[in-house]
Amino acid sequence: MIEFAHIEKSFFGVNVLKDVSLAVKPGQTVGLVGENGAGKSTLMNILGGNVRADAGEMRLDGQPYAPDSPRDAERAGIAFIHQELNLFSTLSIAENLFIGGFPRSRSWLPFINRRQMLQRTRSLLAEVNLPHAPDTLIERLSAGERQLVEIAKALALDARLIILDEPTTSLTARETERLFAILARLRARGLSLIYISHSLDHVLRLCDQIVVLRDGAVVANEPAVRFAMDRLVSLMVGREITQLFPPRAARPTKEVVLDVRDVAQPGIVRGIAFQLCRGEVLGLSGLMGAGRSELARILFGLDPCAAGDIRLEGESIRHLPASERIERGLAFLTEDRRAEGLCPEASIADNVTLVALPRLLRSWLGWLDRPRVAAEVRRMREAVKLTPTARDGQPVKTLSGGNQQKVVLAKWLLQEPKVFLLDEPTRGIDVGARYEVYRLIRQLAARGTGVLLISSEVEELLGMCDRILVMRGGAIRDTIEPHEFDRERILRAALHHGGLA
Amino acid sequence: MASLPALRLLKRALLADHLVLWLCLVYSAALAPFTPGFASWGNLQTILAYAMPILVVSVGLTLVLIVGGIDLSVTSIVALASVVGGKVMSADEGWLAGHALAVPAGLLAMLSVSAGLGAINGLAVTACRIPPFIATLTTMMLVSGLAIWLTLSRKIGGLPPGFVRLGQELWLAGMTAGVTTWLAHLALSCTLYGKWLYAIGHNARAASVSGVPVARVTFFTYVVSGWFAGLAAILFTAGLETGNPEMARDNLLDVVGAVVIGGTSLYGGRGRVSGTVFGVLFLALVDNSLNLLGLTFYTITMVKGGAILAAALTDALRNRLLTQE
Question: Among residues 238-277 of chain B, which lie with CB inside 8 Å of chain A?
């Protein structure tokens, strides 16, 4: 139904798309994979009318198609569901679905036909299996439900091709299953899908055809059955990665560094007790809303803790503010990089040194030791292998997601933490950067840091951790030792007893 | 499009670091031939004497804007501090009239009252989490009311000569303004406090997760802003030889305008003291030259308003050019 032929695009003299040709047939689901910066987003922005190609053409049902704006694309039946959802959180579901054009009672009167709007919303919500009233506000929906509203919105526009960009990053396992069931139904109705994701297992499961982009060129375009995970990864990276996880350098010690005793906060978590040893990587699994991130925030001192005790190297830190916990050796990589992890407008150097700055002073007046600051920035850049092309003074927001995450890591590594709480450290970053993050975690553990790794990706936990805790409903439900590592057991504990939802 | 030489020049000029300084020079050169008495030593002194106290207030406000706040109460703090100084020192009605320690006590009273009012702003913003706009607007109204109530709207004369010298002798006022401005510049560019200020302005949540004592730094910044207003009040009061409850009433526009013209962002995280210095200088030049040309106060205010609007537009344009790079 849509065909790209010899698409070329460059930005500021850099070729981001080179002679890209591919086709999507009606009812087909095409997976588009590649590292960050491989050109996926640019290609989809050309399709969605946000960007114009320098050369080449697109054909829609055999007709030349050259959208000038996202509206043109919409009219042609192409809907683009972005990674960051574009819904108005203070408006209702129905209002969001029809924001582009409300049904009117008389075409010449500026009044909305509420009845018709609610009726159509109900039938659209039924199509995506979302049992909510049409006037529910978006802010009351979970991330997964919002995703379904986005799809309903695409259906409201009579879309025939839906582009999904990383739809599962903020979804729980159960919500992902639900999304996939809906997508399968849409496909059966003849809708075409383009599915962009870093979660390769999802791509392999969902797609008929997989296109691999690398450095702006198509390096593979074959039916999904011909790919296996290893081959996909090596195609994306361009080199063979024999192992997705770096080898373990040292065994964890038996020396407890973080001792959490019956920590509770009403309505959030209860009876949390575990010990983290020096050099241990402790995984924390669970669905979204199970209380994992909340627990990390309590341990770090950002949220209150009503009962229990938290001991770092034997001393209670429960009543200390976050800044003092940091001084004592606690570090926290937050799940929301842009809102809490970084000052996006500030430079790489300022971000890297933000935490450690009080230790880089020359005198009591708060005078900065500039040569030492610069030297530390240089040292950390090498330690995390930040892209060498970026200048120290460059704003962090100009970096790719992977490099931004490396800046956050550098910021904390400079502090040489004793306990590092990592909340979804590999979310939204490409395969290469992911491997770097894993390497740094291993390095930290080898040096004796206790690592608490929160992740929604079971593979990641199985590959990286020495022990895995599973949370559900604000409590720890299962502790899994390495010899018992089992995907299904984790999922079962996270979901409920019984099988998968 | 940007390949045209003229456009490229314009683009370079817009991105230049000291754009406002260049503007000052170009403006002065352009107006000097038509404005009688503009380019004279005496007039330069007038301009500097006018600009000095405004500079001190503006530097304080620059810090508040960088941390992502706003302080609308600075000029009313100037007025109240001026009244307090008069009430303490005046030979006619002062509490310490004629006392040997009247001047030091007066200075101390003016600075502590201002810093105290800054602290109230700081508490309102950090502990009570009132938006800075509302918090400082309220302080502004309360404080200007208080200044007028204390004096029943009269001016206080009879200030001791030792105090008046502080404002009348240009070098003394210049030293005071210069040293404080320089200190603020050093604090911003070379100290932990400066780095923290920018970090909070960029992203307060990220700063707080990184262990920056956000509330403490923000609070301290409002205190400093109040303190700077008190220092400016000394210069204003000594310069005009009266404690006046309406002191600096019409200068809020100059202060905010100078900081914005100097390139400090109203959204926080960006700004420099040097920019504020040039912004103050530019508005002082405009004010002085138009006065000499015989324009009325209202016309001058309109022209200044236009200049500030132009500065805001330039800033928006600069941002766009910078993000295109």
Answer: 269-270
Nearest-CA neighbor of B76 among B148, B176, B152, B130? B148
CB distance B211–A343 less than 8 Å?
A: no
Domains A2-237 and A256-495 share a fold: yes
Tokens of A74: 């919409």
Residue linked to tokens 């990592």: A422
In a domain, residue B205? The reply is yes
Q: Would you list the domain boundaries of chain A?
A: 2-237, 256-495
Question: Which DSSP symbol is given to A14?
Answer: E
Mutation for A interface: B192, B193, B202, B209, most A CBs within 10 A:
B209
pLDDT bin (cut points 50, 70, 90) of residue A109 is: confident
Report CB contact under 8 Å: B209, A302.
Answer: yes
Q: Tell me how far apart the alpha carbons of residues B221 and A276 are, in angstroms, rounded to a whole number.
A: 40
| pLDDT the model gives residue A500 | 36
- A169 CA to chain B: closest CA distance, Å? 22
Q: With helix as H, strand as E and coil as C, how does chain B read?
A: CCCCHHHHHHHHHHHCCCHHHHHHHHHHHHHHHHCCCCCCHHHHHHHHHHHHHHHHHHHHHHHHHHCCCCCCCHHHHHHHHHHHHHHHHCCCCCCCCCCCCHHHHHHHHHHHHHHHHHHHHHHHHHCCCCCHHHHHHHHHHHHHHHHHHHHCCCCECCCCHHHHHHHHCHHHHHHHHHHHHHHHHHHHHHEHHHHHHHHHHHCHHHHHHCCCCHHHHHHHHHHHHHHHHHHHHHHHHHHHCCECCCCCHHHHHHHHHHHHHCCCCCCCCCCCHHHHHHHHHHHHHHHHHHHHCCCCHHHHHHHHHHHHHHHHHHHHHHHHHHHHC
Nearest to A286 by CA among A483, A468, A481, A143: A468
8 A C-beta contact, residue A224 and residue A207: yes
Residues of A whose CB is below 8 A from B206: 339-343, 354
Q: Which residue has the higher pLDDT, A47 or A237?
A: A47
Q: What is the pLDDT of residues A230-267, one digit of tens each?
A: 788 778 776 555 557 888 877 888 899 999 999 999 98
Q: Is B207 near chain A, with CB under 8 Å?
A: yes
What is the dotted CATH code of the domain comprising A2-237?
Answer: 3.40.50.300
Which residue range(s) make up the domain with B175? 55-248
Q: How far apart are CA B57 and CA B61, in angstroms?
A: 6
Residue from A166, A180, A195, A69 nearest A129 by CA = A180
Whether B211 sits inside 8 A of A365 (CB atoms) is no
Question: What's the rounded mean pLDDT across residues B100-104?
Answer: 90
B251-307: pLDDT as tens digits: 998 899 999 989 898 888 989 999 999 999 999 999 999 999 999 989 998 998 998
Provide the residue type at B291 as one letter: N
| Fold held by A256-495 | Rossmann fold (3.40.50)
Which residue is closest to A355 within chain B, CA to CA? B210
Tell me how many domains chain B contains.
Answer: 1
Candidates B210, B214, B266, B319: best to mutate against A (most CBs of A within 10 A) is B210
ipTM for the assembly: 0.85
**Burial environment of residue A428 by CB neighbours within 10 A (0 to 12, 13 to 18, 19 or more):** middle
Band of pLDDT at residue B317, cut at 50, 70 and 90: confident
B114 vs A181, which has greater pLDDT? B114
For the stretch A304-307, contacts whose Cβ atoms lie closer than 8 Å and that sit 24 or more positions apart, written own/partner, are A304/A265, A305/A263, A305/A264, A305/A265, A306/A264, A306/A265, A306/A266, A307/A262, A307/A263, A307/A264, A307/A265
Please check whether residue B269 lies inside any domain of the structure. Answer: no
How sure is the predictor about A497, in pLDDT bands with cuts at 50, 70 and 90?
A: very low
